[in-house]
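Q: Structure tokens for this one, please.
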Amino acid sequence: MKRFLCICLLLLLAAAPCCSAETGEAAPTLTLIGHASVRITTSDGTVLYVDPSFPGDYSIPADLVLISHDHSDHSKLKLVTQNEGCLVKEPKDTINPDGSYNIFTYRNVTVEPFPAYNKFHMKFMTTGFLITFDGITVYFASDTSKIPEMESLAGRGIDYALLPVDGEFNMDAREAMECAALIGAGHNIPIHFFDADPALFTPENLLFIPYGETVTLEGT
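A: Here is the predicted structure, written as tokens:
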């Protein structure tokens, strides 16, 4: 009888679903819609868009939208389908008059605005973002060149860094590779190409995402 009970227990354990099936959670993903337009979906289904502008699929309703600055290639909010209660954050919401930043958490996502600037983008009107969810941190550099503040990211355990490489309004591929080496992210993703060749961006831990493609995110 005891042997029969043990066999039954083993069969039940073998048939038990894994934790992810029990929670119903899926792996988080990142979609590079195009240019600097990004969609992130967390494991619990929270949908976040950053800098909607590039033509693509914005039909998955947003819970959170981040806009780094008001240039037309970053701020077409009307493209995004929004859930009721969707939270939209623009520079006026994330940058204080004294130049400090407003860190906030919405659902399971924590957003830390981060400096982004160069001669084309004023520091008090532009932000990058450190976006943390599911134990993963994504650095969206926004429109910027290499800046001293990036040195502070070296010890932050960045998993994915999205860096502009156009060399026209921001740093070029060479300078972006200097940033990648400084930051030490687990994956370095080129964005904001314009007419520049993204193949010139060849850092360690390169992750090239074709426009419209989705990747599964993992912590490093």
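A few notes: The chain has a mean pLDDT of 89. Residues 2-15 form the longest helix (14 residues).
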